[in-house]
Design a protein that fits this description.
It is built from 16 helices and no strands. It is mainly alpha-helical and 400 residues long.
């Protein structure tokens, strides 16, 4: 039962990644058709991110009332409806309206699934599940590339992904009895004080927000998380536009090229799940930021061929792969198990804030200065994240 449910959760993580890269991959063609400037993508992603933040904050309350299975299925169905709405939109203001359920569906399922896996499955699955998120996020740009190269256009890409999401929602609704049986089995095991089928159950702390923020080092990790998530979201949203503007590739080719960044994240997280215990969180975070910096340097090289830029996106994606899971996993070690639950909640807020603010900030700056700024902007975020994480490492080392 637990193995079958885990397989369904893996499918759900693919579903979670599918919509995340569509806007960035299709925007070079979308903004022209809609008659809005390139920087308008920032407005759209801010609305989506705002919905994600709101539903993430409500996720615990919804899950406690309706259960993880129903929240997951309903969230995927909400996202599917938003994707169909995007496919039928012919103006920017309509996209902005549909962006609200687009974000609301993503946030609730993200928080609910991560929490459920942390409670009921081994820690290694967290890296691999985020790798499967990358599978979904990597597929979408290829779908967009195919649609743009054919007569389907960008609306066709949203239709295809919407149909996939509808199918996944049907599977999730059909699996609701399985979620109920799994939850009941775990509850019976706890009531009998017997070994539960769950593993790696985290310690829940009840640390007030203002107390958690005063813990030495918390601000360092929040800034590092902000920088990383801003970097990742900026690369996903703007890499295709950068390739079109600076390397003169077609929008269809740029959409395919942009997917290589996500493929790097996908493959990197699978590998990180294998070697994380031997390498350790500190080395994964440090090496990840350094590899992203190397990838950004390759993207920045002013060559006529886009080959090195493509290679740089892959390298940057590989570097990004372990940073997010390693920061989360290192929290109990850095701040104590009794405080980790509260601090991880704040980290998620910092992550969504970075994803919300940083991409539109780049959109504004690139409008003034040009798309050449893209790799330089990524390098600045790498430096910020690396400096903050190293300051935290030194602080933790002094405590030991």
């Amino acid at each position: 039962m637990y193995s079958l449910l885990l397989a369904i959760i893996y499918v759900a993580f693919v579903s979670l990644g599918l919509p995340d890269s569509l806007v960035g991959a299709g925007w070079p063609a979308m903004h022209g058709d809609l008659g809005v400037p390139v920087a308008a993508a920032g407005v759209l992603t801010m609305i989506i991110a705002g919905g994600t933040i709101a539903s993430s904050l409500l996720s615990a309350r919804l899950t406690s009332r309706f259960g993880t299975g129903l929240v997951t299925a309903a969230s995927v169905a909400t996202t599917a409806a938003a994707l169909v709405g995007f496919a039928t939109s012919d103006s920017f203001w309509m996209l902005c309206i549909w962006a609200v359920p687009y974000g609301l569906g993503a946030g609730a399922v993200d928080a609910a699934l991560n929490n459920y896996v942390a409670l009921h499955y081994a820690a290694r699955h967290m890296n691999w599940l985020h790798s499967f998120w990358g599978v979904g996020a990597s597929i979408s740009p290829f779908i967009m590339s195919h649609a743009l190269a054919s007569e389907l256009g960008w609306t066709g890409a949203y239709s295809i992904v919407g149909v996939i999401q509808i199918s996944l929602a049907v599977v999730l609704f059909a699996s609701l009895p399985l979620w109920s049986r799994a939850t009941a089995t775990a509850a019976q095991a706890e009531a009998a004080d017997a070994p539960s089928p769950t593993v790696d159950e985290p310690v829940s702390g009840h640390v007030p927000l203002k107390v958690a923020l005063r813990i030495p080092g918390v601000l360092f990790v929040l800034v590092a998380f902000f920088a990383y998530c801003g970097l990742e979201s900026t690369a996903i949203l703007w890499s295709a536009t950068y390739l079109v503007g600076e390397h003169a590739v077609t929008p269809a080719t740029a959409a395919a090229f942009a997917s290589f960044f996500l493929l790097g994240i996908t493959g990197g997280r699978f590998l990180a799940g294998i070697v994380a215990d031997r390498i350790g969180d500190v080395a994964l975070i440090r090496g990840g930021f350094l590899m992203v910096g190397a990838g950004a340097l390759l993207v920045a090289l002013p060559l006529s061929t886009p080959v090195l830029a493509l290679t740089g996106l892959v390298v940057a994606g590989l570097g990004c792969a372990p940073i997010y899971p390693a920061i989360i996993h290192s929290t109990p070690t850095s701040f104590g198990r009794e405080s980790s639950h509260a601090i991880i909640g704040i980290q998620m807020a910092a992550a969504y804030t970075g994803s919300t603010i940083v991409p539109p900030l780049f959109g504004v700056l690139s409008t003034w200065l040009g798309q050449w700024l893209f790799p330089v902007f990524l390098l600045l975020l790498v430096v910020l994240g690396l400096v903050m994480s190293e300051r935290l490492n030194r602080l933790v080392a002094r405590r030991v």
